[in-house]
Amino acid sequence: MGCREKTATESKPAGESTAASAAAATATSDTIVIGHVGALTGGDATFGTSTDNAFKIAVAEQNKKNGIKGKKIELRSLDDQGKADEASVVATRLITQDKVSLLLGEESSSRSLAVAPIADLNKIPMITATSTNPKVTQDGDKTRPYVFRVCFIDPFQGTVMAKFAHDNLKLTKVAILRDMGNDYSVGLSKYFTAKFTELGGQVVGEVSFKVGDQDFKAQLTALKSKNAEAIYIPAYYTEVALIARQARELGMKLPLLGGDGWDSPKLYDVAKGALDGSYFSNHYSPEDPSPIVQDYIAKYKTTYGVAPDAFAVLGYDAANIAFAAMERAKDLTGPSIREALEQTKDYKGATGTITIDGKHDAVKSAVVMTIEKNQPKYKATIDP
């Protein structure tokens, strides 16, 4: 799961603040400091660790190319322990004390929502690789000026799985089991329901759990009587694997459906085959023959000894999109980097071709993966 590099409690006395001092420091230094706010410990630490691993590869590659505008990049990764309030503290520290020119992270939508206002206030661009909730880049009905993402958003992801369930699997009745305290889970449930019912399907039951729960048999028993043909579980791998095992123990053989929060090697370690015959939406497939994808998989395996999950691939794209924008920017101040990020178009990344739209969201395809013999396999690609 990786180790903690620093925490917010290790801070020094606060000095000058805001982007003005950060830009001044950048202008006179031979180093560009980029910060990562992520969960390097805690229940979903594989998300933060995977993206951090990717950021390190991208930084090393860029520094071999003479950095950005002749300046070397320094990555500073701080652990928020999977807590939204700690993410706010960490982001503030990176901006006001470490004088970062750009923030990478957070991986969770709930924690990115805590960091986004801080990035805007200080005029420091923020790129989340994996936060899919639409609200991350939006402040009410306005686009947040300094917040960007390189992943698709939940309305698209929810629609992808609803269409796949209806059109490909020919399902007409689906139940939903969601994490009631997770913006990601609640949002995906909403968008899946809207599209599935629009297509003529029926959501026959919906029950909730809370993150950290270990026993889901009451919820599953309640859904068992609904005669659903599948259960949509838009949650994180930490709970999904336990849910799958308990569903099979109750004799429920129906397929389970989910989103990119499933994507972690630990899902299969805990599920132990209970998810065979299930499906989830994701950002890339390791079976993609594209040279960009296969070259990166090889590099990641060489460095870390395992294949990258989607978070590690999105992290690589996020960092490289940031570096390309900073190289194009007229200077390394927040407003200039933001303007360059807004001009990102048809970037050829490891997760596909990425264009940043007017809402600072990524326009790109999604893939659907199936699980066979306790391993993910490519099933289909769904375009925007």
CATH class of the largest domain: Alpha Beta
User: Segments where pLDDT lies below 50 for 5+ residues?
Assistant: 1-18, 22-27
The number of helical elements comes to 12
Shape: globular
User: N-to-C SSE series?
Assistant: HEHEHEHEEEEHEHEHEHEHEHHHEEEEE
Q: What share of residues are in beta strands?
A: 15-25%
Total strands: 17
Helix fraction bin:
40-55%
Mean pLDDT: 92
Question: How many domains, as an integer?
Answer: 2
CATH homolog superfamily of the largest domain: Response regulator
Describe this structure in words.
The radius of gyration is 21 Å and the shape is globular. The N terminus is likely disordered. The two termini are 33 Å apart. Helices cover 41% and strands 21% of the residues. A 7-stranded mixed sheet has the order 9-8-10-11-12-16-17, with helices on both faces. α2 packs across α11, α5 packs across α6 and α8 runs parallel beside α9. The protein folds into 2 domains: 221 residues, 3-Layer(aba) Sandwich (Rossmann fold), CATH 3.40.50; 129 residues, Response regulator (Rossmann fold, 3-Layer(aba) Sandwich). Belongs to the leucine-binding protein family. This is ABC transporter substrate-binding protein.
